[in-house]
Design a protein that fits this description.
Layout: H1 4-21, H2 27-40, E1 53-56, H3 59-72, H4 79-94, E2 101-107, E3 114-123, E4 126-134, H5 136-143, H6 145-153, E5 169-172, E6 178-183, E7 190-201, E8 206-207, E9 213-223, E10 236-245, E11 273-286, E12 295-306, E13 320-323, E14 327-337, E15 340-358, E16 363-385, E17 389-400, E18 405-416, E19 420-430, E20 442-453
Antiparallel strand pairs: 1-2, 2-3, 3-4, 5-6, 5-20, 6-7, 7-8, 7-9, 9-10, 10-11, 11-12, 12-14, 13-15, 14-15, 15-16, 16-17, 17-18, 18-19, 19-20
Helix pairs in contact: 1-5, 3-4, 5-6
Length: 454
């Protein structure tokens, strides 16, 4: 930005700072100088979203910055603001190791000077601002030349500065695998591209291999603050790929009843589908159910649309079978209500009945009209990303409006040190006498997880 006004005002600010540092003045004069400085400051708030940010998380450097502010507060141009900041920040530094407190820095839009430093406390994945100083002259005066130049130059970066941005993230859960393929370097903002997969669809009450398909897709995800430690957080994401036929079978015979865990499989895949999922966080730091401002609202749209039908089926498939060709899931979740989260939505899927072979037509064919299934659902639970144990325990309930039965489910994930864990899901039907012949009464799905994440 080369507009002459910016450089003139910047020069005036620098001269004011130099004069201030070389003089001794009383409180009234200091107030007059502050008013003069405010009058010549260029208002660039409209550019805040594109200004460069970085975060200092090293506890030694954070404490050094705090010590400079405390030492210089009595004579600083921003004295009143500094005392308020110190009063809120000191308890957080004194009661912790310091690793929970960080300093957010923001560069001025039209040059390389720092226009803002803010102390933030990170607790349970939520960043709470303790206080800030805004304005190049005020920041430099409060830090002193030596500390200001250190923070500005970022020559401490290799030794101190780090964020939660990841270079590698390999999440090997057979039910929902995820492998990061590419990400931007760990900075204040983060784009990531990952290969993702999924077996089944919990919201259709068809977990693991019971849906006879497997999702293989690419996910593009954007996080606007990588220092938030919740691994599920993102501002928005788009996942697109294919839901491919994967007709597993379990040896069985017709003597098994409708309540058997293993019975004759008559739900089969009849062709591949296009898979799309989008998530968006339109609001964060909400205060709907708590007062700490840490809640956020996540919205999800997911759909799977059949793109072709198979022209032949293996002899191991039953003579007639059912198939889900298309599905849609709409969901809203309120997360970080303390340790709790809750949500709900509506799922829909169609249901087709096919014959493996119609002799007179010498090809497969449909033997019944298409049926629609509507399934509203509710989900709530408790989750935590801790240093040793991460967990997510979520009871789940849905109801098939079309057929008059539903499922109670419990989805549990336990991970130790964000490295190894288990994923266990249990679904049990209620009003099971109304179950369709292709449904199971009980689903039990265990999986072992390994994660490489740094």
């Amino acid at each position: 930005m080369n507009h002459p006004n910016y450089h003139v005002r910047s020069l005036l600010s620098l001269l004011l700072l130099s004069w201030w540092l070389c003089s001794e003045t009383d409180g009234q004069t200091r107030g007059d100088l502050r008013a003069l400085y405010d009058s010549i400051t260029v208002d660039t708030r409209a550019f805040d979203s594109v200004k460069e940010h970085w975060v200092i998380v090293d506890p030694i450097l954070v404490r050094e910055i705090f010590t400079q502010l405390k030492r210089r507060a009595s004579n600083a141009l921003a004295g009143d603001s500094l005392y308020a900041l110190i009063g809120r920040t000191e308890p957080a530094l004194m009661t912790t190791s310091g690793s929970e407190v960080r300093v957010l820095c923001r560069k001025r839009y039209y040059d390389d000077e720092i226009e803002l430093i803010a102390f933030q406390e990170v607790s349970s994945s939520i960043a709470r601002t303790l206080g800030s100083i805004e304005g190049y002259v005020l920041v430099r005066d409060a830090l002193g030349d030596e500390t200001y130049e250190l923070v500005k130059s970022r020559r401490y970066k290799d030794r101190f500065d780090s964020t939660q941005g990841k270079k590698y993230d390999i999440y090997l859960d057979p039910l929902e695998p995820r492998i990061m393929l590419w990400s931007t370097s760990p900075t204040f903002e983060w784009w990531r591209v990952s290969a993702v997969g999924r077996l089944g669809n919990d919201y259709l009450a068809l977990p693991f291999w019971f849906k006879s398909s497997i999702v293989a897709a690419l996910e593009v995800l954007y996080v606007d603050d990588v220092t938030i430690t919740d691994r599920q957080y993102s501002t928005f994401s788009i996942t697109a790929g294919i839901e491919a036929v994967n007709n597993f079978s379990v040896p069985s015979d017709d003597q098994f009843t409708s309540t058997s865990i293993f019975k004759k499989r008559i739900l089969q895949g009849s062709g591949d589908a296009f898979f799309l999922r989008t998530t968006w966080t339109p609001a964060s730091n909400l205060r709907l159910l708590t007062t700490d401002g840490g809640e956020r609202l996540d919205l999800t749209l997911e759909l799977s649309l059949g793109i072709h039908e198979k022209s032949a089926y293996a002899a191991t498939i039953p003579d007639t079978f059912y198939s889900v060709r298309n599905s849609i899931v709409l969901m809203a979740q309120l997360r970080h209500v303390g340790l709790f989260h809750l949500g709900g939505g509506l799922a829909w899927h169609d249901l087709h009945r096919f014959s493996r072979y119609i002799p007179e037509r010498r090809e497969p064919g449909r033997v019944a009209p298409t049926r629609n299934n509507f399934l509203p659902f509710l989900e709530f639970g408790i989750a935590h990303d801790g240093s040793l144990l991460q967990f997510d325990i979520s009871p789940f309930l849905n109801y098939n409006l079309s057929e008059g039965y539903g499922y109670f489910g419990l989805k549990t994930k336990l991970i130790v040190s964000n490295m190894v864990g288990v994923d266990l899901r249990y679904f049990k039907a209620f009003r099971s006498s109304r179950l369709s012949s292709w449904q199971y009464d009980t689903y039990i799905v265990p999986a072992f997880m390994v994660r490489i994440n740094y």
